[in-house]
Amino acid sequence: MEVNKKYSKCLAEAAFYLFTLLTVTLVWCVVLQVWRADWNIPFDYGMELNNDVLGASTWIKSYMRSGFSWEKSDFSAPFFTDRKGELGVDRVVLLLEILCSRIFSSYGGSLNALYLMSFLTTGLTAAYSLRCLRFSRKISLAGAIIYTFLQYHMMRGEMHLYLSFYYSAPLAVLIMLWITDESLLAGHLSQNRIGRVKRGYMLCGLFAWIIGLQQPYYAFFAAIGIGFALLYSLCRKHFGKAVESMAYLLVIAITTLVGNAQAILHTSDPAMKYMLEQRTVKAIEAYGLKIIHLLLPIQNHRLTILAKLRQQYDNLVNAGNSEEAWVSLGLILSLCFCASLAAVLINGRVDLRIRVCGSFILAFVLVATVGGGSSAIGMIFSLLRCYNRMVVYIAMFCVIVFGVLAEKLEDYLRTRKVPRAIRCGLLLLPAVFAVWDQTSPENIYNYAETREEYLRDEKYVRSIEAEMPEGACIFQLPLLPTGTTSIRELKDNELSKPYLHAESTRWLHMYSVGSRTDQWVNLLHGLPLRTVADILVCCDFQGVYMDSRGFTSEQWEAALAVMDSVGDDPVIHSEDGLKVFYGLSDHAADLKERIGAKKMKEYGDFWLNCPDLTCFSASSLPYTMAVSPLDDGMLLPSGCIQYGPYITISPGDYTVYVTGNQLTDLTYDVSYASGTIQLPLHFLSTESDLVRYSFHVEEEITGAEIRCTNATEENALLRGIYLFRKDQSRERAAIEQFLHPGGLAQEFDSP
After folding, report:
1. What is the mean pLDDT of residues 98-117?
2. Per the CB 3.0–4.6 Å rule, which of 108, 347, 523, 735 could disulfide with 42?
3. Minimal CA–CA distance to 62: which of 52, 75, 43?
4. Could you check whether the bond before residue 469 is cis, i.e. omega within 30 degrees of 0?
5. From the CB of residue 79, how many other CB atoms can be counted at a distance below 10 Å?
6. CA distance 188 to 345
7. Residue 80 has pLDDT above 90, yes or no
8. pLDDT mean across residues, the chain
9. How far apart are CA 618 and CA 514, in angstroms?
């Protein structure tokens, strides 16, 4: 009899979690009006707030094309991208990516399924956590729905797919409460044992491991919360709990470090330097939490008066639609937030669960708020900068407070003999209201416009692949300065879109900072486009894809003129007139005839070996006065000074090549100490398109600048600055053949 009772209870719990998943799915479909979408086309095709979604899309697409591997050669041509160097990969989401790529026939279907899974996993863990806190199934379901459909989740969307998976936060909250007071949780966690080990110990250890598998933000914030619980245990002299909490922290730390060990070992010095430059205390202040953002209604609220209230605030503080503003708790959780903080002051006269939650909420707010503990942490460790993301922990504690209040309401209604059906309706009504309050019509994707652009791009890439042999490498213009993913009207990662439709070709983007492709592209920045076309065919590229949105009108015309001159291959224009594709087979045949197959192979081997050259593209250097892009470089007007690149130079002899046009009469210097100390220069040649000089460094200098000053009355054009060490005579000799605007064949055609 006891066995049957236990079996029935397990079935009832399983049915509850299944019903929770079905309810979350239904609400998700209604909120996003999914029936309007084509499931095989991504909801977000980089047409929303920004194009971060294209990064995740690229990896999903690559798994569909060639299965899972850390190294991918389908993009980042002519080399490959190594995901082992990517910090913060969520191992659980990675597994889901691989599974979805095997199940669905399109990357869009996989992406959409993953987005749904972010809601299902969050709803499931939230419901489980509330059940562990002894709440009824009705209250647990209502709380899980409120938590799953936070504004934070809706705004992350597919754009920030990995951040949409915050399923570990409810589990982390369980660990914090377990350490603080076991009596807050269901009795079976402390009473049931395996040997001498409580069930709660084993579950919390498992939760800590899962937290460590998540991307570092949520793991780090969970560790901060467990750290608060550790301090609480020490203050109460519960040393056993303190030791236990340290064990959980150790599990999280080891799991996170092991999961990111490859990335730490494979991250290049340039990539780490770039990351540290972006992640500073200043950035932590910019992305910190603002309490008023928690309590204000969401942007574009369904209720006009609340939408105007939020808009008025945003106008007063000049706030944009950015992630630090996506943390509204909604009306219900805001009331719970205020009630919990008040309970901390009232102390013993309020339910223990509310007081404990209020204490944790206060602690998280003190850390996350702009100018709070996050700034102090950032002075030591600044790699994680977006403390506004702590809202997922604050919100979970608010949901628990909601559960306590709902429980008291249910008890009151029961004593008044209110029918059960009405009680259930009154308890679930707040969840319906919360979904209405926390979401907006703005969350609905523009399915029709997305479908139109997606199919147009697909058709264009198919027309390109019809002309290309299988495995052909396709170069993409414009060239992007290191660390950037957008330029002019070309939005973030938009050059990744052609790959998403490719079936048999390899493409240049995406590549990471410091990768071989990044170094190679950076070298091409300093070369004339005509020469770049020669290098491409030597490196076995079969085509060039160009997007006009990344050029000025003058640059676009100049680039088209160059590409029109390099061969007679068919030119493929996109329907919208923004993109154009040039085949390179005719140019490759012509260059082979003029300089010979052997020379082409030598040139190709030189560039594909990614020589250890240092090039600073003109577009990435700072300037004075009105500098503007021109052709394939930067226009230096009269009176302009080019600064930077602010690098460290070791002792030794160096040679500098400056490439561009009208360079003869410019003045040059190598300086440091904010330009106050200049090194003696020895000029080797001063031609209109190439200036060469050498200098000697006695001892290491930092903040070194290799400057150009236009003191003439004429404009000049700067393409790039190459820096060679003394032992790079071979590289200097080889690259000289590539620095003239006329291309490689010029030297062979000269009399």
Report:
1. 95
2. 108
3. 75
4. no
5. 17
6. 32
7. no
8. 90
9. 18
Which tokens is 244 given? 């236990």
Please state which of the ranges 32-46, 328-342, 349-363, 733-747 shows the lowest mean pLDDT: 733-747
The answer to whether 691 touches 639, Cβ cutoff 8 Å, is no
Reply yes or no on whether the pLDDT at 415 is more than 60: yes
**Do β-strands 701-709 and 690-697 pair in parallel, antiparallel, or remain unpaired?**
unpaired
The three-state (H, E, C) secondary structure of 96-157, written as one string: HHHHHHHHCCCHHHHHHHHHHHHHHHHHHHHHHHHHHCCCCHHHHHHHHHHHHCCHHHHHHC
Q: What is the pLDDT of residue 750?
A: 47
- Dump pLDDT digits (tens) for 507-532: 998 788 778 888 888 888 878 888 89
Structure tokens at 352: 């223990």
Strands in 185-248 per DSSP E: 193-194, 197-198
Q: What is the pLDDT of residues 275-320, one digit of tens each?
A: 777 788 888 998 999 999 999 999 999 999 999 999 999 999 888 7
Q: Please, which pLDDT band fits residue 486 given cuts at 50, 70 and 90?
A: confident
Q: Express each pLDDT in 613-622 by its tens digit.
A: 888 888 889 9
Residue type, 591: L
pTM: 0.91
For Cα atoms 395, 396, 402, give the angle at the middle one, nearest 5 degrees. Answer: 90
pLDDT at 725: 93
CA 417/CA 638 separation, integer angstroms? 87
Q: Where are the alpha helices (DSSP H) in 468-552?
A: 497-501, 516-524, 529-538
**DSSP 8-class letter at 652:** E
Tokens matching residue 61: 């697409």
The partner residues of 686 in beta bridges, in order of sequence, read: 691
In the chain the first and final C-alpha atoms are separated, in Å, by 103
Residue 385 sits at φ, ψ, to 5 deg, of -115, -20
Inter-axis angle of helices 216-235 and 352-368, to 10 degrees? Answer: 120
25 to 30, 31, 118, 121: CA distances (angstroms): 9, 10, 11, 11
Q: What pLDDT score does 715 carry?
A: 93
Q: Which residues, in sequence order, are CB contacts of 302 under 8 Å at separation 6+?
A: 436, 437, 440, 441
CB 464, CB 580: distance < 8 Å: no
Phi-psi region for residue 418, left (φ > 0), alpha (ψ -120 to 50) or beta? beta
- At residue 519, the pLDDT reads 84
Q: Kindly give the residue spans of alpha helices, DSSP state H, lying in 287-326.
A: 291-295, 304-316
Q: Can you state the angle between helices 216-235 and 199-213, rounded to 10 degrees? A: 140
CB 398 within 8 A of CB 361: yes
- 557 with 563: CB under 8 angstroms? no
Nearest to 89 by CA among 113, 48, 123, 55: 55
Predicted local confidence at residue 2, as pLDDT: 63
Rounded mean pLDDT, 19-30 = 97
Distance CA 407, CA 404 (A): 5
- What residue type is 271 in one-letter code? A
Q: Is 180 helix (H, G, I), strand (E, B) or coil?
A: helix
| C-alpha–C-alpha distance, residues 210 and 219, integer Å | 9
Q: How far, in Å, CA of 502 to CA of 62, rounded?
A: 10
Q: How far apart are CA 632 and CA 640, in angstroms?
A: 18
DSSP summary character for residue 683: E
